[in-house]
Structures are given as C-alpha cells and as structure tokens.
Amino acid sequence: MKKKNRQNDMENTRKHVRGTNSLSYGKDNSVREWEKSRDYENYRFSTKELALYLMQGSFLALGINYLFYKSIWAAVVFLPIPVVYICWQRKRLAKERRKTLNFQFKDALNSMSVAVQAGYSVENAVSACVRDLRQLYDGNADILREFQYIDHQQHVSVPVEELFLDLGQRSNVEDIENFAEVFYVAKRTGGDMNQVIQKVARMLGDKIDVKKEIEATLAAKKSEQLIMSLMPAGIILYLRLTSPGFLDVLYGNPFGICAMTVCLGIYTGAYWMGRRIVDIEV
C-alpha cells in the first residue's frame, strides 16, 4: 500500500512539475537541452559526438574487413557495425554519466548535512547546497542542475521528498534511489532529518571511497587487458604489412574465410570476457 501511494505521489509530482517547468526555468535553450537529457538511461549525443563515433565505427568495420576478410562482400556485411558501435558507446556513456552523478551526489549530501547541522530546514539546506555546488562544479554539471531544479520546484510547492524520489527513479542510481526512499519515509513520518542525512551521507561516502579504491587497483589491469586485446590484431596487421603474401592462403577461399571467422569469433569473445572481468560493480 505504501509503495502504491508513493507511485501515486510520483505521478502527481510529474504532472505538477510539467505544469511548472516554464515558471521555474523560463525559455533558455541550454535549459531546454538539459531537460531533454534528464533521462539518465538514454545518453543524447551531440552532433560532434555522433559524427566522431560514426567515423570510429566505420574505421572499425573497415579494419575488421582488412585484417580478416579483405573482401568487398564482407564490407557489405559489416555495414551495421557503425550502428552497433554507436549503440555500445551510448550505453557506455550513459553508464559513465550515472557513475559521475553518483560521485557528485556524495558532495551534495555532505553539503546538505552540514547545512542541516547548522540549523537549516531541509528546504533551505537544498538552497545552501546549490550555492556550494556552484563553487565545486561548472554550470553544466548534472548534479548542480538537478539541485537547481529541485530548489526551483520546491518554491512552487512541489514537496522536496517527491523531487528526490523523481531524481532517484530517473537516474537509476542505486545510492540515490536508496537515499530518496529513506528520505521520503523520514520526511512523511516526521523522522530526524539531521540524523537521516548524516547517516546516509556517511554510508554513501564510504561506499564511493571503496569504489574509487577498486577503480585505482584495476586501472593497471584495464590497461593490460586493452593491450592484450590489441595484440592479435596488431600481429595480423604486422604480417600484412611486412609479409604481404604470407597470409594470402587465408583470404578469398572457403577454408580461409571459415578459419578467419572462427578467429574473429574467438577474438571478440575474449575481448568481451576481458571487459566483463575488469568491470566490477560495487
């Protein structure tokens, strides 16, 4: 029943927010672009990024064809590779954006915790947090814009706990979702907000510190994995350039095509497994 009530509250909040966006933010183009990109599950490419990744995907397709098949028919088969590459980059960048937002949220919670300890109400602590975040991040930082958004919306009578719930659901970041759930219950039941914010900020800070330690430990392993992944392609390229006729038996005939296809499959599988091994979630 409580979960259903929270869902109803969220739906009412979204309707309220949609009706007050123009009042709180105006018609600035940069704000409109940010509002379009508030879905953290789907990364929005800029024109420059899209052109860059399309070019990288095209070079990847040409490189695979040159190293493994050397055939115009294979080039036609590999035409979808740039599209697949762009989708993979979109997913990777969305994940990086959520991770960055998670790290930034730690600073925001610490700022709110200090403000609440100083005697501010939660609503005023959000406003104080916005001022602190302006000193820490540039104007395009997601965390700054999110807290500016929360600050604006709470001034047009949208409950701050529902705004945090909305942020948690949109961001799909576990730590933010957990904070939003605890914050919502504590605010609605009259809990000690000072203790809630302090405890969650401390726990979130410890978890993020562990994440950073793991990333620092794995940085060298990720570099090794990247080098090892490039080695097979590098060896084939070296042989193609230094001994052009050495690998001719593997091109333009059924046996060679089958052999190269098996090698490409093993190569792709090994690269995928290597990425999964060094990509540890905490």
TrEMBL record:
Domain of life, source organism: Bacteria
Region (Disordered): 1-24
Alphabetic keyword roster: Membrane, Transmembrane, Transmembrane helix
Residue ranges of the TM segments: 50-66, 72-88, 226-247, 253-273
Basic and acidic residues biased stretches: 1-14
Xref: PANTHER family: INTEGRAL MEMBRANE PROTEIN-RELATED, PILUS ASSEMBLY PROTEIN
Identification of the protein by name: Type II secretion system F family protein
Source organism of this protein record: Blautia ammoniilytica
Lineage: Bacteria, Bacillati, Bacillota, Clostridia, Lachnospirales
